[in-house]
Amino acid sequence: MAFSRRRLTAVAGVALAALTIGLTTGCDAVNKALDCVQTADSIADSVTDLQQAVENAANDPTQADASLDSIEKNLEKIGDKTDNADVNKAVDDLNKAVDNVRTAIKNGDRTPDVSPVTDAAGELTKVCTK
What's residue 93's pLDDT? Predict the structure, then answer.
């Protein structure tokens, strides 16, 4: 009977370990998705700030730079936390759009087209919620 108890204990231990690994992996995926959604939400707020900054560029041209910096900081957070190819592509696309707006501002464009930033942010939000 001692053999049966040891075997039962071993099987129970293996089962518990497998369950723990499965739950940890599942929770990790959920946490990554939540981080992605939360950061995408922050980016959406920064995009709104960028749109307002571009509209008010004559009053304070530094607002647009601050909004672009905020978007880039949040993109780094997402890029560091995910290995999802769709999310990484959306992050790359949004980075490119931000760079284009920043270049336009540096070249003297007081009202750069921010629609590619808005579109890329929308795509990022979409892939984060898949």
Answer: 93
Query: Cα–chain-centroid distance for residue 79?
Result: 6
- Looking up tokens 């979409």 gives 126
Q: How confident is the model at residue 106 (pLDDT cuts 50, 70, 90)?
A: confident
Check residue 111 and report its DSSP letter.
Answer: S
Angle at 101 between CA 100 and CA 104, to 5 degrees: 85
Distance, in Å, from the CA atom of 40 to the CA atom of 32, rounded to the nearest integer, reads: 12
Task: Please tell me whether the overall predicted TM-score, pTM, comes out greater than 0.85 for this model.
Answer: no
Is 21 within 8 Å of 42 (Cβ atoms)? no
Count of C-beta atoms within a 10 Å radius of residue 74: 23
**DSSP annotation string for 8-45:** HHHHHHHHHHHHHHHHHHHHHHHHHHHHHHHHHHHHHH
Residue pair 101/68 in contact (Cβ under 8 Å)? The answer is yes
Sorted by sequence, the CB contacts under 8 Å of residue 129 that are 6+ apart come out as 37
Q: What is the mean pLDDT of residues 107-130?
A: 86
